[in-house]
Design a protein that fits this description.
The protein is of the alpha+beta class. It is built from six helices and four strands.
Length: 197
């Protein structure tokens, strides 16, 4: 679907996904190969590696050519540098949620958190589609009927959402502005939707 959206000329944005996709290295590597930015939720048991520290060689140490920091079973080169975002609520004995991201190193923490938390909005929208507009009420047997039902439900949802937003004061749709010292251009992370006429 991501490749198909790209073929339609939809600008690249930030891909957000839950653990079902985030835990899969092939999925994340596919996004990296397509030069797409992502923020993926991962499980607590996911193994991540920190960048190796530089160490001084002492006399008597084995030569460095005997040691490799890259697992040759899975990759031929070091993976790109990534963010590991951890949500650890105050007073809790351990962290609650984890995300991994390949956003630019200059990305501010507020933008990173925005993209990590935007999944909540997606889940809320999906729940509203089912509960308030009947997305899950289709009982037909044909693809064309199902496609019509989903299309009309999405159109109704889009209309109601735009009406709600139009009447809200100070509603923020875009990610937060870059923090002082951030060098990430806004155009890299947020694109305008094409004219779909």
């Amino acid at each position: 679907m991501i490749d198909q959206a790209g073929s339609w000329g939809i600008p690249k944005g930030v891909i957000v996904c839950d653990c079902a996709y985030g835990n899969g290295n092939p999925f994340r590597q596919g996004l990296i190969d397509r030069e797409l930015f992502y923020v993926a939720k991962i499980e607590a048991k996911t193994i991540v590696f920190n960048e190796p520290r530089k160490t001084r060689r002492r006399e008597g140490d084995p030569p460095s050519e005997y040691f490799r920091l890259i697992d040759r079973r899975t990759s031929k080169s070091a993976p790109p540098r990534q963010w590991l975002l951890i949500e650890w609520p105050k007073g809790e004995p351990e962290p609650a949620k984890y995300w991994i991201s390949n956003l630019l190193p200059q990305t501010g923490i507020s933008r990173l958190v925005f993209f990590a938390k935007v999944r909540w909005r997606i889940e809320q929208s999906y729940q509203q589609l089912k509960e308030e507009l009947g997305l899950d009420h289709y009982e037909g047997r044909g693809y064309s009927g199902w496609h019509h039902h989903v299309t009309m439900t999405m159109l109704a949802y889009g209309f109601l959402l735009l009406e709600t937003l139009r009447n809200k004061k100070n509603f923020r749709v875009d990610p937060p502005e870059s923090e002082a010292g951030d060098a990430a251009p806004d155009s890299v992370l947020v694109g305008d939707m094409p004219d779909l006429q």
